[in-house]
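Task: sequence in, structure out. Protein: NUDIX hydrolase.
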Amino acid sequence: MSDDRGVLIDDGVEFPVPAAGELWAVGAVVLNGRGEVFAQRRSAARRLFPDTWDLIGGHVEPGETLLAALVREVAEETGWRVRRVRRQLGVLTWVGDDGLGLRHEADFVVEVDGDLSAPRLEWSKHPRYGWFGPGNLAELKDNRAPDEQLVYEVAARALGVAPA
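Result:
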């Protein structure tokens, strides 16, 4: 199936529809040819989760669909273009330390067009990036409290490995 932006959506992928007043975020897991997950390091100046690894993604704007937010966030944060949504990894709920309250986050494995070796990061927000496979996946836990391992858990789920 394909949406009106030309993004292919695999069978079984569903996009939740936010209810009025709910805060939603989306996350995109991009895998390279070696089966590693792309992550970017948040700057130490960020209010929410400073100096931690993060997946591509962000908040769904009012009136925006989750698919539109996913496509927008991938383009804004990397310069890549979502070509295909392979699968949904689930919906998580979490509360940040920014006072905005409960958020729902839907995470997806996506394929992108663009040079995977040269993402166009928002350098002031994400000064570094890396690729993480089973051998170094635990690095995604850096500077995260034991109960704040969502990035690691989503990446592990995308790779099909049991979280350690």
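The first helix runs from residue 66 to 78.
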